[in-house]
Amino acid sequence: MKKYIIYSGVLAVGLLLGWLFFGNSINEKAEHNHAESIEKNQLWTCSMHPQIMLPEAGDCPICGMDLIPAESGADGLNANEFKLTNNAMALANIQTSFVGKNTNKNTAIKLSGKVSENEEANVVQASYFSGRIERLSINSVGEEVRKGQLLATIYSPELFAAQQELITTSSLKESQPALYKAVRNKLKLWKISENQINQIEASGIVKQNVPIYATVSGTVSEKLVEQGDYVKQGQALLKIANLNTVWALFDVYENQIELFKKGQDITVITNAYPNKEFKNKVDFIDPTFNLATRTVKLRVVLNNKNREFKTGMFVEGYVENTLSFNGERLMIPSSAVLWTGKRSVVYLKTSPNEPIFEMQEITLGKQLEEQYEVLEGLKKGDEIVTNGTFTVDASAQLQGKKSMMNKTGSKTMTGHEGHFGMEILKTTESKRVIVAAKFQEQLKMVFNNYIELKDALVKDDPKSVIKYADAMLNSLGKVEMKLLDNLEAHNKWMAFEKGIKYSVNSISKTPDIKLHRDYFKHLSMDLISAVETFGINEKVYSQFCPMADNNNGAYWLSREEKVINPYFGNAMLTCGSVKQTIE
After folding, report:
1. Which of 42, 79, 102, 126 has the smallest CB count inside 10 Å?
2. What is the mean pLDDT of each run of 10 residues along the chain (583 residues)?
3. Does 259 share its domain with 357?
4. Biggest CA-to-CA distance, the chain
């Protein structure tokens, strides 16, 4: 028994010594391997420039500061996936929805247009003989005239001589009836009425001033002469429009042409009567394609006996689509789509329970009102971002993932991307930075000058563009950076201010409106991100035109939800759509 006790003691001592000598070594080895693994996957960033991500420690390539370890990425994410916090989702008001199939064949197609005169009902009131206008009875454009109303009186030497001929030949009508008849016919060709001719012949008195009467009823749309002017035979005096009917002319884009045909039902509405609908049919589709606007005109004749429509008034038309949807099609909101050149992208939520996203390229079909048909890239049941898409894209770029401007995804940057305002896409985070109300007020002054500059571009007015660019520089100089009391806000504003100042300075130094629009594109990107980040206590709209910048697409900010495009002047005022509402 004693022998067994001794053996057990020796065994216990041996196990204890083995653990002391070897167990610690195994743990150290395991810990060492784990540390090596962490060290191997560790990324290094700059506290001042968080877009920098390098695989080893060193200096920041932008500012030279020592790099610090970056936070580890989310476990289990694919190479192009990225994760947002629930707090960031809430602050940026990021919303998602599920992709569904649309089987409604009567999806309405929205068109924008203007009211115009019915050219088929227009009449030009001309002078049928030469002379001087002694009296003009029409004072201004817009006056109503009735058929037979006196418009003007004219002194005409030719007509004076013809009246004398009539009086002379009237005594010879029995002996020379052909001559008498020829003189009367000459007066009739000058639109002198039978009664007027008989009156001249009976009285034997030559009228010095001959009246001109309206041949139609309508509204004077253009006054072409003034009292005292000399006019030639056939010269236009007035344009008279019959406004009992007017035209509504709508722009139809190239990819929508096949959706329309003559005789389709169309509903027309206008802001003047928001609760009233005017139903009619498509009267005409212009066979000529406008190369400047890439549109054709669709025409609707509107009854206007009550004078509800005024020429120049904006109208919207809604046509029930009956041509293209003969089966199920995937439809997504237009707010979900970002464009860059020929690429269309959306952000797919890849996890049902967590805010994990990935960029997805898609192929779009036709646009039907505020929705797009998806031909490739999505399937029924996919969950996509439908509000705050631009903010999600900025976060993807910050994390070096595939994004709208970064097709392949890359975390390392050189620090020179900001020369034309592009740094904003790579540094904007997806949450609002809380700043003092006074700072927001100062930023709003910069925004107000931006809106004035944008409106000047809409009007093709380069002098006003330069004027408001100078005003914007002045407002920018009054923004107090000392009001930003945290490092995050300070760094962001420095980046935004640099891009804004560069673009506005460039605009103010050139009279070329084409260059104005080039710099305005970059200015808009910086200001969009600044307004998103800091806010201005006002609801504004981020709008996008895919045809701007030689079909590369460009953004701008607007106070109004209605699209008025600053990149083409009058040529394409309504091209574009609202991509994001910034509260």
Report:
1. 79
2. 54 54 48 45 60 72 65 58 80 84 60 90 86 90 89 87 83 81 83 82 82 87 90 89 91 84 91 90 92 89 91 89 58 83 84 88 78 86 89 78 70 36 35 82 92 91 90 89 76 83 87 88 89 89 85 86 86 82 83
3. no
4. 175
Residues 422 and 554 occupy one common structural domain: yes
DSSP 242-306: -TTEEEEEEEEEGGGGGG--TT-EEEEE-TTSTT--EEEEEEEE-SS-BTTTTEEEEEEEEE-TT
**Co-location of 425 and 569 in the same domain:** yes
Which of 333, 409, 430 is CA-nearest to residue 378? 333
| Residue 234 exposed, middle or buried by CB count within 10 Å (0-12, 13-18, 19+) | exposed
Quote the DSSP letter at residue 67: P
At 502, list the tokens: 């560069």
Q: Give the Cα separation of 247 and 113 in Å (integer).
A: 10
Indicate the angle between helix axes 194-203 and 177-189, nearest 10 degrees. Answer: 130
Shared domain for 538 and 433, answered yes or no, is yes
- Rounded CA separation 359/362 (Å): 10
Tokens coding 529: 């991100």
Residue 183 token pair: 């003189």
Could you tell me if 422 and 565 lie in one domain? yes
Q: Report residue 409 as tokens.
A: 């995804």
Burial, 357: exposed, middle or buried (Cβ in 10 Å; 0-12, 13-18, 19+)? buried
Residue 558, SS3 per DSSP: strand
Task: Answer for the pair 264, 317: CB distance below 8 angstroms, yes or no.
Answer: no
> Is residue 50 a part of any domain in this protein?
yes
492 and 544 housed in the same domain: yes
* Number of compact structural domains in the chain: 6
Segments forming the whole domain that contains residue 315: 108-118+243-320
